[in-house]
């Protein structure tokens, strides 16, 4: 393996910065180009804003770069969903029957900064910010970038695009559609999202239960909340655009307050500034992007959100992107710098798994919105909790996806769906309360054979 | 209804030119912009090249513009598929048990010229050729076009993009993705196509059976042939790109002749120039394009291939585009020039039907390639022929799609698939040969209730 190969990475987000670190650890030269400014220098508003759920797939990828323990110090564990039904008491729905299984609330920018600081320690890595890549020569692994209004070129042995859902590298591949037979889809939910917040109390502490992910499910819409280290929570409203309670209709102070008073009365005491935030904060879209191939001419590759953007309802978008890096690194370990081989093996291994988590995330959108507070769903969750408590070999679908990082997403999806079908059938029987837990377990374990 | 509304049509292909005629017949002003040169002036090579199957949906649309009988004079009827298995005699598989049902081979450019000539008769229609539209202001119904290297503007009451699979109007809508929540997918088969031909004989006549669509099915690949008015046939090779017999591998004269001698020995006597044609003619891609919405801001609409490009295996691409015009015209008849209403009603009525024919066309790719010469398929076709002969109310799936123009594609697909399932079940019974035809018919007719 030629350690002198130079890899150009487009995009210094979570995926790109972790990838740079792993490639540097393997001895390659890395040049990162990032269009945004250097997050390390604008750290001020980093603590707030977007937070994400970091779980075992992301942690395994960080562990492979020896970063797991340091990152965990910036996380708040979340052991379950705290459900806030309209008009009745809230309750906890644990993520797993095993107390060792939990997910972690982490600041997106905080994590990115930690990875950039780590990357800066490697002298083989060069990083350029405020330097948008405007074109890629897919066959020559050459890029054109802008810096201070001037256009420059750089050339590597390969180019890897980790430039997110709006990827310029992917768009360049799309321009080569006939040659690459480039398949592509973008699919938007008729729902969008808007962020609100709960401020810390006077002591800088959390005003509502800290170590959970809160959900206020309301049928066709919902609000969720994740805790931040500074005592605040970031709230996300997931709402339709076009219906009566949709973002496009809630366009006056009166309508908004009437709506919140009707649907989120229990939340109102914690969000005195909601009107201001509602009208100041933008509405984001929620889309799934799939494409194929991910590589072009053995010289250019896309990974992370650039090749598979998903909706956030399984908390797996970031984890899937970090897992891309873990899997890519394993392929490099096997095939070295035979990049065409590496790229093909990687895309063939990852593509179906990326499709699977995309589909699971869409499924979970409907589950979180419609079912987390209904009887049948809660009964099934209860049985799954008991199964996980008593049988170390049992993992629910959610646990397979979230707490089994070595199991590929696609297999987690297939097995999880089979389990769900079996559980649902039993729960529909008249005598389901008399069925001993070991009967459930026996039926479920037959799936393995 | 204001008859003075001006409609800008982008693209003077089959869909755009028929649309212009219909709108002019309703009294609107129409301005067509076409990037290609005027086909009427380059008529020479019009007789050859691409031919298409015009069937009852396209004919109904033409009839509504009083053009059916004149167009039929340029068509060659095709009553069935002439199947040429490897190593055995060819045989005819009729399209329908009714002798009145047949499809028509027509020259794409010949039909386009006929429509352009018709459009030229209306003084409310202006047509500009070699005038590519480069940008559309979706909200203002304004376009920017290039003419002789200069950029100009035009503004209408609405803009309708009928500019094909590579639609500039659709691309402009895609740039408004967040605002429109614009869903889009392009999906390419790993197969491409290349055209060859059979020349007329010395008397200017057809060397093989004229009034059929010929197929040489060969498992993962095939050749088809449609007759032209001048005695020639246009052949289309549908082949994988990447396998051993794929276009990318058949890259030397030796390989190509070895391949044709092995797989198409019966065809060779008719195609003495196949080597020349194989190496001169380009390979095209086969893709399905879906998107939504088709309209933007009540001012801009796309239809035809611009909004739903499909693979050619059901012979419905052109028919679906012409049917778009028929349905659009019916919506205009009801809602007049309330364009926002017209566009919304049209897209909601057509979208699922466009999705249905796209999926049927993909299904047929596998059916034509793999099954047209297998026993079970032929048995089922035989029963369907008998049913169609004896029961005027029975239509096979193919007939529902091809010969029932008033039945929307989606309903044809659903009913056709249900019928197929029932027929397949009966054909799998041991006693299937003893089952009287009226039993089949009874079971199939139960679907209607």
Give a description of the structure.
- The structure is a homodimer of 449-residue chains.
- Chain A is of the alpha+beta class.
- Helix content of chain A is 38%, strand content 24%.
- Chain A is built from 14 helices and 20 strands.
- Chain A has helices at 14-25, 56-64, 68-72, 108-119, 168-175, 177-180, 253-263, 274-280, 317-335, 339-371, 375-390, 397-403, 409-428, 437-445; strands at 6-10, 29-33, 51-54, 76-78, 80-83, 91-94, 103-107, 125-128, 133-137, 142-147, 150-155, 158-161, 183-198, 213-217, 222-227, 233-240, 284-292, 295-296, 300-302, 308-309.
- In chain A, α1 (14-25) packs parallel to α4, α2 (56-64) packs parallel to α9 (317-335) and α9 runs antiparallel to α10.
- The mean pLDDT of chain A is 93.
- The A-B interface holds A 177-178, 181-190, 241, 285 and B 177-178, 181-190, 241, 285.
- β13 of chain A pairs antiparallel with β13 (183-198) of chain B.
Helical coverage of chain A, percent range: 25-40%
CATH topology of the largest domain in chain A: FAD/NAD(P)-binding domain
Mean pLDDT of chain A: 93
Question: Most extensive interface, residues per chain?
Answer: A-B, 14 and 14 residues
CATH architecture of the largest domain in chain A: 3-Layer(bba) Sandwich
Apparent shape of chain A: globular
Return the domain count of chain A: 3
The CATH homologous superfamily of the largest domain in chain A: FAD/NAD(P)-binding domain
Distance linking N and C termini of chain A? 41 Å
Tell me the radius of gyration of chain A: 23 Å
Strand content of chain A: 15-25%
Order of strands, widest sheet of chain A: 6-5-14-15-16-13-17-20
Name of the CATH first level of the largest domain in chain A: Alpha Beta
Figure out the total of helices of chain A: 14
């Amino acid at each position: 393996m030629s350690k002198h190969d130079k890899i150009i990475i487009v995009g210094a987000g979570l995926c790109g910065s972790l990838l740079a670190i792993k490639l540097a650890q393997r001895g390659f030269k890395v040049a990162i180009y990032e269009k945004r400014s250097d997050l390390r220098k604008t750290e001020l508003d980093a603590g707030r804003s977007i937070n994400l759920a970091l779980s075992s797939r992301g942690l395994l990828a960080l562990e492979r770069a020896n970063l797991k323990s340091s990152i965990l110090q910036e996380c708040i564990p979340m052991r379950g969903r705290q459900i806030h039904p309209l008009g009745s008491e809230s309750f906890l729905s644990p993520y797993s029957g095993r107390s060792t299984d939990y997910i972690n609330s982490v600041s997106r920018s905080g994590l990115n900064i930690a990875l950039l600081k780590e990357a800066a320690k490697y002298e083989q890595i060069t990083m350029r910010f405020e330097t948008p890549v405007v074109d890629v020569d897919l066959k020559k692994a050459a890029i054109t970038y802008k810096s201070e209004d001037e256009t420059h070129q750089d050339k590597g042995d390969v180019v890897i695009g980790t430039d997110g859902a709006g990827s310029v590298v992917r768009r360049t591949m799309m321009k080569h559609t006939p040659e690459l037979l480039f398949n592509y889809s973008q699919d938007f939910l008729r729902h969008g999202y808007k962020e609100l917040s709960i401020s810390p109390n006077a002591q800088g502490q959390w005003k509502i239960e800290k170590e959970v992910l809160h959900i206020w499910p309301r049928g066709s819409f919902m609000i969720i909340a994740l805790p931040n280290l500074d005592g605040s929570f970031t709230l996300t409203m997931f709402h339709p655009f076009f219906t009566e309670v949709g973002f496009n209709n809630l366009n006056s102070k009166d309508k908004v307050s009437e709506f919140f008073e009707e649907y989120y009365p229990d939340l109102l005491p914690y969000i005195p500034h909601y009107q201001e935030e509602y009208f100041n904060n933008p509405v984001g879209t929620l889309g799934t992007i799939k494409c194929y191939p991910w590589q072009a001419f053995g010289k250019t590759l896309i990974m992370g959100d650039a090749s598979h953007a998903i909706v956030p309802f399984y908390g797996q978008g970031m984890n899937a992107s970090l897992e891309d890096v873990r899997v890519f690194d394993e392929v490099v370990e096997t095939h070295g710098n035979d990049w065409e081989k590496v790229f093909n093996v990687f895309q063939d291994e990852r593509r179906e798994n990326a499709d699977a988590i995309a589909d699971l995330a869409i499924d979970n959108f409907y589950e979180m919105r419609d079912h987390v507070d209904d009887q049948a769903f809660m009964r099934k969750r209860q049985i799954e909790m008991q199964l996980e408590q008593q049988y170390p070999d049992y993992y629910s679908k959610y646990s397979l996806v979230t707490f089994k990082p070595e199991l590929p997403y696609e297999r987690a999806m297939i097995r999880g769906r089979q389990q769900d079908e079996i559980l649902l059938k039993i729960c529909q029987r008249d005598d389901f309360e008399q069925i001993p837990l070991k009967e459930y377990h026996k039926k479920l374990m037959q799936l393995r054979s």
